């Protein structure tokens, strides 16, 4: 922001009544927009008044508002010049579903993964101090995100720093499913406490007035703190060095704005505790906030999805794991706040005593799994690929060094579509391969997933991961059996290699090539770590051209490893590796992303055709 521009919160001029009307209008827009595009509805409905209050009090062109997860930023986007663009939300070429500094000066920071906002905001406070600047810094964090350890690392440092930093806690009692853990219990108790804010405001006004000198103020402040601590149980935030304000009703715009204005003037770490209702104002979402956390397009009149969601890999995983747990009492399931997304509802209902939701705490989940494995249980942690990135060290240190039998169900592996760059599961192939002793299995159908999960749980020793994609299986319904790899189609002209869901596109490409008179040999890998290149090398000896296709990052890809194996075997062959590349992949429908990356059947076909024709 230029120095000449004035400090001007976007909604500074509106009255409480106008603001309340605006909130009703925003709710309507949210339901209309998201019913067409899909997206994170319930969290946004709950944060309407909060967002309006923030924009009444803060100028987010210069004040820095750091969203945690960022799935609740839709009203912020509407209010900061992206109202029309909401029609393109999460679509290829449209605006993102999460805050993005490249989209707007009002988006202070990237978001998508939970629990980092306080640490990021603290970094901004440090920079402000170092550079002698004067803007305000805020972190907007949900109670679910507060179950992640990183949040406490941020709070611990922020509470001790003594600088202006406003942490706004949006507490709706919900993560995606009801929130878990002792901190959630603590917040629930705080929510029941009488509002303390009114007293504090009155006290400060009187004590700051000319009638009372600063000495008296300081003395009475101490008395007040002592009284408060003996009469009211203290919030954990006060013990961590924050001025705790609240709890405040997050749907009373006038009260919320007052609290925000008050908090804005405090030159210290402040935690504003706001109580909200997830899904507020739209009955289907209020009644079923879990189902309306993230939705596909739906009919706004009924809340019913426009397309029925069918069977998917997550459900197949959950069903198989439940069967295995019913057969073997050592089998336990762990989730990091993603029970429904990872298909574990059935497990939770069937074996509640062996189901553990640790909250948004992937590191804790992996370390806990290590402890369980050490003592003879068989822990299975079902986790989205991109969230597993959080637990890389725990995997190496707590699991792999002692070769513990921990099973990872790596869901959402590969491209995920509309959530975009923060959520694509394109790094696990590389980072899991770098862990000594790791086995990584890559099923391409439900049948293979079931077989491989059974193998991983009951027959593999040491750490083992099974990676599978978002959504359902394709035309390939085979069961490749227990081997490392299988030849699915014979041919002499080119070797096509893939694994997981992309085998469908590769098989289609082989069919298109056959139409051009080119016979492709298709090798499907079942185990990608440790990689056994034997079948691929045999094929390449014959075809002299190898094309690998995977929806994983270029560096550390299976293609890279196969290219090295070809070179090591002294084969003269052309090797072409198709991957998701070495850049972050944007958001959009899977079909668009695959097309952009040349990973759909047409793209693979074209690349293979060009290579073979060049060669021949
Ligand atoms: C590291 C990480 N793990 C899991 C998730 C998936 N996730 C997205 S939102 C969410 C729940 C967040 O709850 P809360 O912060 O209370 O926000 P609310 O939706 O209730 O507004 C979860 C688990 C994530 N984004 N990041
Ligand atoms: C915001 C977030 O991290 C989750 O809500 C995520 O968007 C869920 O993704 P799925 O739709 O693939 O379950
Ligand atoms: Mg919540």
UniProtKB/TrEMBL annotation:
Matching InterPro entries: Dxylulose-5-P_synthase (IPR005477), THDP-binding (IPR029061), Transketo_C/PFOR_II (IPR009014), Transketolase-like_Pyr-bd (IPR005475), Transketolase_C (IPR033248), Transketolase_CS (IPR049557)
A Pfam family matched in the record: DXP_synthase_N
Binding-site residues for thiamine diphosphate, renumbered to this chain: 71, 112-114, 144-145, 172, 282, 362
EC number per UniProt: 2.2.1.7
Gene Ontology, cellular component aspect: cytosol
Keyword tags: Isoprene biosynthesis, Magnesium, Metal-binding, Thiamine biosynthesis, Thiamine pyrophosphate, Transferase
GO terms of molecular function: 1-deoxy-D-xylulose-5-phosphate synthase activity; magnesium ion binding; thiamine pyrophosphate binding
Binding sites annotated in the UniProt record for Mg(2+): 143, 172
GO biological process: isopentenyl diphosphate biosynthetic process, methylerythritol 4-phosphate pathway; terpenoid biosynthetic process; thiamine biosynthetic process
Stored Gene3D superfamilies: 3.40.50.920, 3.40.50.970
Pathway noted in the entry: Metabolic intermediate biosynthesis; 1-deoxy-D-xylulose 5-phosphate biosynthesis; 1-deoxy-D-xylulose 5-phosphate from D-glyceraldehyde 3-phosphate and pyruvate: step 1/1
Cofactor info, note text: Binds 1 Mg(2+) ion per subunit.
The protein's required cofactors: Mg(2+); thiamine diphosphate
UniProt domain Transketolase-like pyrimidine-binding: residue ranges: 311-475
Keyword set includes Transferase: yes
Homology family: Belongs to the transketolase family. DXPS subfamily.
Role summary: Catalyzes the acyloin condensation reaction between C atoms 2 and 3 of pyruvate and glyceraldehyde 3-phosphate to yield 1-deoxy-D-xylulose-5-phosphate (DXP).
Quaternary organization: Homodimer.
Name by which UniProt lists this protein: 1-deoxy-D-xylulose-5-phosphate synthase
Phylogenetic classification of the source organism: Bacteria, Bacillati, Bacillota, Clostridia, Eubacteriales
Name of the gene encoding the protein in the UniProt record: dxs
